[in-house]
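Exercise 7.
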Amino acid sequence: MTRGGVPFVAPMLALSIAGFLVPLVVLAAFSFSDPAGGFGLANYAKLFADPLALQVLFDTLALGFKVVASTTLIGLPIILLFWHAGPRERSLIVFLTLLPMLVSNVVRTFAWIVILGRQGPVSQTLAQLGFIPAPRSLLFNETAIVVVLSQIELPLLLLPVMAVLSRTDRSLVSAAETLGAGPWRILATVILPLAAPGILAGWVLVFASATTSYVTQSVIGGARHIYLPQYIYREVGVLFQWPSAAAIAFVLLATTGIIMAAMAMLSRHPRLASHG
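Solution. The predicted structure, written as tokens, is:
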């Protein structure tokens, strides 16, 4: 960047420092303080000695991986449809992918309460088909959380993949067909490797959003399923343990950051980057 460009970057830099870096430093200071006025690792030691907190951390990370796997399975047919579509159809697919993002996550989460509720269409259909004896609520379990988060986070996976595939030379598939490759071999050796950088970028976004989605986890999961965002809220809003909550928030930030960094490094591997 030249010196002439500094004035244009300065507002964004100042906003990032004021809105992200300074609160992060304050949060870190809170996490190392204790009620007696001391300063140390007592909050972290207490956190890692608590089996419930460790179980909540494990469940939160597991939820992130389950949502990533679910969105990948749901998104793969859409990715293949996008790859084989013409320019007009591709524009329509991108529009339909963006459309849910125009509605707040809170609104979409509460819409799922109606869909998965006792009188909702899913329960009524399953009862009429004989899969369940009578209509019942399908909410307040982990499967419901994964399904709802998968629908909400799906655009975060699809958009990076579509961006990568839009720049990809489709004649590579024709070349593979000429050499005798079948549809499944083309999918495994041509399309998926080409889309890999976008898929990994989407995984990073989906994982980060799913593990920190307080509203969806609380509303769909209820009180039986507790994840780290709700655990932090309990420490702050119920127990007023700000230092403990800050330590938990930093552990969540560190664990998700390490996993996201690993995914980002994998996406920059020379063999994958050469396909992007």
